[in-house]
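thread: overnight batch results

M.L. [08:02]
morning all. the overnight job finished for the chain we discussed friday. pasting input first so we're all looking at the same thing
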Amino acid sequence: MGLQQSYSQVYRFKTSGFSVLEKNEKGKWGKWSDLGLVNITVTLDTDKNRIVVYSQNIQLYNIVVYQPESESESDLVYSFTCKDNDGVDCTLSIITRKKQENRKQLYITYPDHVIVYNIFTM
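M.L. [08:03]
and the structure it wrote out:
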């Protein structure tokens, strides 16, 4: 999945599970929540510059910056600087875990919490 802003395309994913990580009142990261099973659709629309998570409350993320692709021995990462439905800044990253049979995850990162979805291409 090579993401180039110059080529408009819609990528569709399904989720299989999600987990949440939050900072506590002292500003330290806690532990990931237990994996919850969830079967929802996620779309990345490079023509409309947005990512939509079709959960019970639809999560709309407008892409402000397409960050450069990064790759390590274990991961391939596509990140996007976004604004959510409320205009709050966040970063969304689609990570392919190369050493885990190319398992894909979507990370939605805010300063005080992170949501991760296990995703697969539709």
